Amino acid sequence: MPRSREPSEGRDPENVRRGYKATLKNPNVSQQAKQHAQQELDRYEGGGGSSEDERHATNVKRGLKAATHNPNVTDMGKKQARDKLEAMGEQPDQPSD
């Protein structure tokens, strides 16, 4: 089964980076795997800072989704969180009221 060209698709960018860095430091990993991890890390980090922007946007989305499920958030706050998620292109979960 061929791998997709973007190994981090659908994953948290920071976790992908951590995984590659861990591979480089692991003494039980083959030299070939370490070379591949370094290439992917170089390619991944070569995005010119966009990965930091993606990480921030991901964290904002997580916070907004959490707010929609938090019983301590008012109905108005939940609605505002859902509206912001929609503005970010995310499909918010429907309220379970």
From TrEMBL:
Biased composition range(s): Basic and acidic residues: 1-17, 76-87
Pfam family, one: Con-6
Segments of skewed composition (Polar residues): 25-36
Organism (species): Aspergillus thermomutatus (Neosartorya pseudofischeri)
InterPro entries: Conidiation-specific_6, UPF0654_domain
PANTHER family per record: PROTEIN CON-6, PUTATIVE (AFU_ORTHOLOGUE AFUA_4G03615)-RELATED, UPF0654 PROTEIN C11D3.01C-RELATED
Listed name of the protein: Conidiation-specific protein 6
GO cellular component, one term: cytoplasm
Region entry Disordered, spans: 1-97
